[in-house]
Amino acid sequence: MKKVITYGTFDLFHVGHLNILKRAKALGDYLIVAVSSDAFNAQKGKKAYHSDQDRMAILKAIKYVDEVILEESWDQKIKDVQEHDVDVFVMGDDWKGQFDFLKDYCEVVYLPRTEGISTTKIKDDLKDKL
Which residues form the Cytidyltransferase-like domain (predicted)? Predict the structure, then answer.
């Protein structure tokens, strides 16, 4: 079985999220999604609208997702790849090159983002409308 893993906050779930999950799943048989915890997001200076538990529940309901885990630090990726016997690591191409260090452990794939949609854009659009 070919295992794939991807990481993200996945706040304000939108079609861009759905697209990357669908394309990531197509690269293997089993898709693991690591969701950034609220505490980890705070360390990065980010705050999600939905709690990490709610974001995990949403992802567990997506048909492309086989398993959801919590991401609590930048440096857990190697451990996750090894412990979950991952074959392919997937991220959006806005991260291109940032995770090449994982090539010693698995294949690394950067997928194109869905044009015109992002959580940041949604938040900005909502601010403009209020």
Answer: 5-123
Structure tokens at 35: 């969701």
Question: Can 44 be counted among the known catalytic residues?
Answer: yes
Q: What whole-number distance in Å separates Cα of residue 3 and Cα of residue 24?
A: 10
DSSP class of residue 101? G
> If you compute the radius of gyration of the chain from its CA atoms, what whole number of angstroms results?
14
Beta strands, E only, the chain: 3-8, 30-36, 67-71, 88-92, 107-111
pTM of the complete model:
0.91
Per-residue pLDDT of the chain (130 residues; tens, 9 = 90+): 999 999 999 998 888 999 999 999 999 999 999 999 999 999 999 899 999 999 999 999 999 999 999 999 999 999 999 999 999 999 999 899 999 999 999 999 999 987 777 777 776 766 776 6
- Catalytic residue (one of 3, 25, 46, 129): 46
Could you give the CA distance from residue 32 to residue 116 in angstroms, rounded to a whole number? 26
Which listed residue (2, 44, 96, 123) is catalytic?
44
